[in-house]
Amino acid sequence: MTDSRGRKTQHPIVVLSGGWGYGNLGDDAILVSAVKLICEKLPQPVIRVITCDEHGAADLLHTYHNVTIHPSIHRQLFSSDQVFYVDTKLTFKERIRHGLRYRKNSRGIRGTLKSYLQSPEDYISTIKEAREEVDAVMTDADMYLQGGGGYINDWVESDIVKHIECIQAKQHGLRMMMMGQTIGPFSSKDTLRIGQSICSMMDGMFFRDSASIADCCQKQKALSEKVPDLALYEHIESEKRDNSLLFIPFNTEVLTHLDFLTLNLKSISEKTRCRVVVTVTQLWQTAIDLATACFLHFRQAGINVELTIPHDVASLQELIVSSQLLISQNLHGLILGYRSDTRIISINTARKFEGFMDKVGMRQYMLDLGHADGHELSSMALELLASPAQPYQSSLADEIAHAFNLIMSMP
User: Fold this and answer.
1) Phi-psi domain of 106 (left: phi exceeds 0; alpha: psi -120 through 50; beta: other)
2) pLDDT tens digit sequence for 367-394
3) SS3 state at 145
4) Label partner for 231 (CA 20 to 30 A): which of 60, 108, 149, 240?
5) Cα→Cα distances 108→104, 119, 168, 206, 343, Å
6) pLDDT of 100
7) How many angstroms separate the CA atoms of 244 and 272, rounded?
8) Sheet containing strand 305-307, strands side by side
């Protein structure tokens, strides 16, 4: 393999960056799958993983002796403590009634972005220690690969960090690629501008959805195509399943439909004698609070229910692979369920959910909570449980491998 400067490398060095390390277990699953993909498709690669959670990444990747873990400059620039916000569509009183903490977003970070965009080079010159850390990771590397997930959007801190990584990678002459990303949506011109700037530095891009291509790549000459979520590169087989149904809430819209969900989950549980398990795919306080609110409501209604908070993606995957059915408002819950041959129902109809459910032939098992008022969910679940689970399509892994091979064959 040769890099963009024509250097011959016996063992290609790949700098791998992404959305992992922030408590989103779906993104951690992408990290593991991305490392597996690189190791299977490149000859004895050396992989340098950038993350905000070095210990967590080291635990996940401990069997890969060719992987080194490097701290993200996110911690230096913006602190390691991340604040995530509940859906503001509910009133303050509604949030308090459901026991959800609410913290107003800081306006300061928007000012930081405007200042950064005026002159990224000037900004980078003021962060000497952080810049040197990025330089050390990029030195002698062949390729900078931004793995999948959705972290280039209105999350300003992430936008700035990834933009700095891209600038430094470009200065070191690395081949630069995106694979499995969702870009956007953007609610401001500034976040759209930095997202488009990141894309403009790439030599090739594979996105999870067409909307990302439309948002950021209209004027780009680089390769830009669609690819399945990188977590789908792995197929996780189950040896034994217990009689449980997983429920994964994601945003506070679910709180306005608790009576409907309670009616349907109780019906499913009573007819199948299954246990309902409420869980999360994000180890964020707001996500745990939301799951707790759902659990308490279901328990009060007499449902056989428990609340289980996984400590990492491996324990989440174990929970999913042993279940009969997964009902999720979160995309990566559905993805981890599908790759485990677990029956899945989506109670979110956003564009990326439609794309995924179409891709795996499960579009008929999507339910819009805003237009459901009877036993639609229980009918759908009982229909699924009465038939064999939709088998994992190995063609998805083939598509991902083909996309990666195409990237590596680019001059």
Assistant:
1) beta
2) 999 998 899 999 999 999 998 888 899 9
3) strand
4) 240
5) 12, 18, 25, 33, 44
6) 41
7) 9
8) 305-307, 275-278, 244-248, 325-328, 343-346
